[in-house]
Amino acid sequence: MKHIVDLKWDGKGGVEAVEKKSGDITTYHLKKDDKPEGSVVIWEYPITDPPFGLYIGGCLTPGEKVWTQRGLVNVEDVDLGDKLVNKDGKLVDIKNIQIRNKVNEDTYRIKPYGSFRTTNFTKEHPIWTGNRGFVKASELSKDDWLEIPNVYYSDKEKYLWTRGPQDDKERKLAYFYGLFTGDGFTNINGKSHDIYMSIGKDEKDLAQFYDKLILELFGRTCIHVHKNTEQSRRFTSKELVQELDKSVGISAYTKRVPEWVKRGSYGIKLAFLQGFLDSDGSVFIDRGKVRVNFTSVNLELLEDVQDLLYALEIKNSIVIHQKEYTSKHNIHSLQSYRINIAKEDNLKLSEFAVFESRKIKLLKKSTCCKKSKMDIKFINGTVWLKVNDITRDTYTGKVYNFECDTHTFACRCIMTHNCDPLTDQRV
Predict the structure, then answer these.
(1) What is the dihedral of CA 341, 253, 332, 278, to 10 degrees?
(2) How many domains does one find in the chain?
(3) What is the structure's pLDDT at 117?
(4) Which domain holds residue 404?
């Protein structure tokens, strides 16, 4: 519990703490003209027979990210206006931010299975596991399972039960957004607001379906771009350009999955993924088995897609597709990433197909019935990820932690406890 106090001389050679309602510094970082003055903050008075953990001195090092209402944010850039995602997948207020200095502090960099990102914690920081409750970072092992909330989980049976007349059109809209997120872009030329879709020259069926889709959804007729060499399309809509730029993004490096898709029904999420698969995904046969993956230079976008896949209880893993390099012709390529889908879950992506593309048709030939080797489990609305790797190091410099309403907050695929005293490792 937070205690705000003024320290006063007690006349007996000591000091006493006089509590008050406010007076501490709550704005971080201080602005140029702010006075660095404020009351003392005491988080907990000394007690006898201390419970498990007592004071949590654990923190995160600069550059590590926490999950906020605006996505993943570096710990040093979080402010009191942000909200953190807690252990139940809810957004909670931040009461205060602690910044400490550490000298030669032991740190532990943790990598969850399936996640590309790692997160670096000081040794005392509690990590939530499904098998052992809260465990200090220094005591975590590769036998542990990291439990995180399946924030966007969608119930398939509920979706089947509640499907209505509007479902078909909503799924087609989500499919369009998936296509656009993969291979679409907007362009404003004077008063003309155009939406482009890159479609390969061999994808004639998709191009024809796209023409009908745009006419049905937006009442627009597509113009064929480079008609003799490929199937790409263009149509005009100022309102849609503005909406796409706002909810999806304006470049391959800034695109994200729209929030309405993340919060949508099972069918909407699935339709978006089918569109993204038809534009930026691959379905191919490798050693007689059908394999599926998504590739992008945009890690944040693929993490959004991973969250959708988790919501549908589809196992997957993000890996490096190609490292950054410069070719002999001096063409520079950024690092790209790939989501691999567990073979046992391939068929889930072809359910309720919006369009029977050649990729969907190939996908339906999946015959793999063996259980995936991916260390991922879905249990009662949560995702369990095996600890994939732990790297120990030392660090000197500033570290960060937060007090929030419910005392738990999320990093990418890792749930942690904040600075409040931890009295029971199962809370």
Answers:
(1) 40
(2) 3
(3) 96
(4) 50-149+383-417
